[in-house]
């Protein structure tokens, strides 16, 4: 993180209050990373490492839990079952009902992947939520987007799907006025807000956490700054807990809305 | 007959609460998407027309008109009594 | 307003549109909080009225949100006019 590099470079004691360097405020530059290694023009950076690691962790956890399932589950398997059942009962079944069990693998993987990626914001060595780089969000959104459009066409036919989207019960001049709104909302605004919600929450959370952490370090000089450093450290604790909540909540909202969009696509013509 | 299986034959209270939570969540973001989409759609139309007619004020006017249209539609669609039906979610219990 | 604003933005580099939106979002922020807060309280007092209360809640939310979104639009108006 370039913020830390600047702090470290500001002298052997580091950059503190009254030591001559200004506050190394975190900003957009803290979201760009120097590549860990490069192959040609392909740069492998820390967010990519985090994303691959999260994928491996989620796969490993569920593989370990369910590789050899027994009727009477062992400890690891019951933990895995707890996770899957929680997602099924709180996210998939409320939106889709029983036929949602077909989409359970997707929703479970998505939920735990997003949650793990978000949690990386809080784990000491990594400390970066990969979803705060928008490039990691759009592929997930694309998966959801392609899925619900495909399901809509498959279940209701091309014309049926489009005719189901139209507002009904309105007189036809109003109908014409509403067509661009409905089209834009369904094809552009809805997936856009799905992605931006996750991205903005993670971006803001990371910025919040890093501002208070850097402030604690910066203020920790042997002067009046120590008092403020304690206050800043308290804020770090508060933001830490807040970010735990936000990580879980954002993963939950993303997957619940995914399940809802799938349900809307599967809905028979009414 | 299993008495512990809540998901199958009977919809318990926790079920209904979870369903309405999912419905409420999606309704909320649907309303917001309608507002945004109305603004963007008619702002875009206003901008295109404004470029043709060289009145650049048509862009914000289009956005305001679109906002009005989408608010009207949201009130129409989400604010009527017969919308409180179970079929909106489309589950097939 | 434009000449004064233009010179001010040159000297202080303030984007008044962004500041205007920030100020415009205060009221609707409080308003939406009130709408949902009272709706939740009403639903807690009388759970059987939840459906009807939700309807009015969404109407109230969309009308309040309009004011915040208008804050996004107005900088374009004053820029264009």
Structural overview:
The model of chain A is unreliable at 6-11 (pLDDT under 50). Chain A has 270 residues and is mainly α. In chain A, helix 5 packs parallel to helix 7. A two-stranded antiparallel ribbon of chain A has the order 1-2. Chain A has helices at 2-9, 46-66, 75-96, 104-119, 137-165, 172-219, 225-266, and strands spanning 37-39, 42-44. Chain A contains seven helices and two strands; from the N terminus they run H-E-E-H-H-H-H-H-H. In chain C, 88% of the residues lie in helices and 0% in strands. Chain C contains four helices and no strands. Chain C has helices spanning 2-12, 16-24, 26-45, 50-80. Chains in contact: A-B, B-C. Chain B binds chain C through residues 20, 24, 27-28, 31-32, 34-36, 39, 43, 56-57, 59-61, 63-64, 67, 70-71, 74-75, 78-81, 83-84, and chain C through 50-52, 54-56, 58-59, 61-63, 65-66, 69-70, 72-74, 76-77, 80-81.
Name some characteristics of this structure.
heterotrimer; A: mainly alpha; two-stranded antiparallel ribbon; 7 helices; 2 strands; globular; B: 93 residues; mainly alpha; disordered C terminus
Taking all Cα atoms into account, the compactness measure Rg of chain C is 18 Å
Low-pLDDT residue spans of chain C? none
The amount of helix of chain B comes to 55-70%
Cα(first) to Cα(last) distance of chain C is 11 Å
The helicity of chain C comes to: over 70%
Q: Compute the number of strand runs of chain C.
A: 0
How would you classify the quaternary structure? heterotrimer
Apparent shape of chain B: elongated
Low-confidence stretches of chain B: 5-9, 86-93
**What proportion strand of chain C?**
under 5%
